[in-house]
Known about the structure:
Blueprint: H1 9-27, E1 32-33, H2 35-42, H3 46-54, E2 66-67, H4 68-78, E3 85-90, H5 94-100, H6 104-107, E4 110-117, E5 126-127, E6 130-134, H7 138-145, E7 149-152, H8 156-169, E8 173-176, E9 189-192, H9 195-210
Parallel strand pairs: 3-4, 3-7, 4-6, 7-8, 8-9
Antiparallel strand pairs: 1-2, 5-6
Helix pairs in contact: 1-4, 2-3, 7-8
Amino acid sequence: MERLEMPPDVVIRRLPLYARSLRYLLQEGKTSISSQELGERINVTAAQIRKDLSYFGEFGKQGIGYDVEKLLSQIERILGLHQEWQLVLVGVGNLGRAIAGYEGFRSKGLQIVALFDADPRRVGEQVEELTVQSYDDAASYIRQNGVKMAIIAVPAPSAQGVTDMLVGAGVRAVLNYAPAVVQVPAGVWVRHIDPVREFQSMTYYLAREEDPQPVAPPEEDADDTV
């Protein structure tokens, strides 16, 4: 497939949604689907699906639609999921343990291969068939095993320091569950997972149902300069 131009990040973020829906379609025994049908399943317009896929070449046939299995295979290859990616997890508290136990990683081409924690009381514990290792050993493990991806589940004050360690050891993709925004250099990708922020964006819509015009009126005698 010929990539016509660099796709926007928002397009890349939608590809896993397409892939997940296509997997469900295969489980249902469906062999072909139109962009209209696919869009209805994930609340995306048919035109948007066609535009997103056009960044990576030509897919499907007009009047016939997409071959579900073939399109899924192509999207997984675009996302690099035709190979297995190893990742490490730093922070094995309650959240970290829950993440480590999530079965969806391995089925999607991702495998957590090591767990690290700075608390000596947790070092040596068994979590999902993995032994928690000392945080001090994380950098050397990452370098020796060529790990490129990591998950952070540590308290906010520790997040940036952990990120710096990971990047310095060679990690190039970080999924950050810490309640803090971390900075990374060019060439490193980070995604911040913050449930509170997501809920706050939804409260906007709920609040608009009660107050359709939330903008406060200007105060009298207010200084117009900013």
